[in-house]
Peptidase S24/S26A/S26B/S26C domain-containing protein (Tannerella sp. oral taxon BU063 isolate Cell 6/7/9), 247 residues
Amino acid sequence: METEQERISEVIAHFCKSKAEFARRMDVRPQVVSNWVARGAGKQVLSKILTKFPEVNANWLLTGEGEMLRKKEEDALSRIGANRDKGDKENFVSEVTEQSSKEFRIVEFVDLHASAGPLGMNNIDILPDTNRRLIPREYESGNLLVVRVDGDSMNDGTPRSLYDGDEVLIVERTYNHWYDLPIRKNLFVICSRGGNVLKQISEINRIKGYIVCHSFNPSHADYRIAFEDIYQVFVVLHVVYRKISLD
């Protein structure tokens, strides 16, 4: 079985032209990559590799078992249309345009109500279907997840509202970059010691080291989270599922 160092070398050879390119994609110095190849990297670094290179099979990278690249997602897509085969095939009329599996990828799904701690650390290959979602292949890189909105704090009755049960696609921003984002044009999922929440960031105070979380719903007061208490910050890209209400 290959060593951890050999598996890292294989990832570099497959996806990058050089260690220097791999270092840029991993946001580290080339010497750090050389150390990983020579001595190993540890689980935290391997998890980061899986984030940067989602095509890599997590089980292979972590244990050496299986193939380097993940299996294609045709099986997941085929399950979506499974009900068609249970009915009257001859008279079946589809009102949904079928899409090629090449147009999608699978990401982890998390319910914010039940989550705590850092997000996106699970092996997608062993998660049950209930904890996985299909998203367009146009979102190729980064730590991408789909999360379910919890509660009414982002619902002010206007078209911008997010409702309890909505699902949104999010992507992680590294600590070196997230505080430079145009905060008034984005919503964020903030993972901290106090829990995981979806909020607008109304202020980033670099001098005193905190952010201010703001809710659309005026019944929810603003509050601060210290930089030192933040594990991760994700940017909301768009809504992937809107809960339908007949009220």
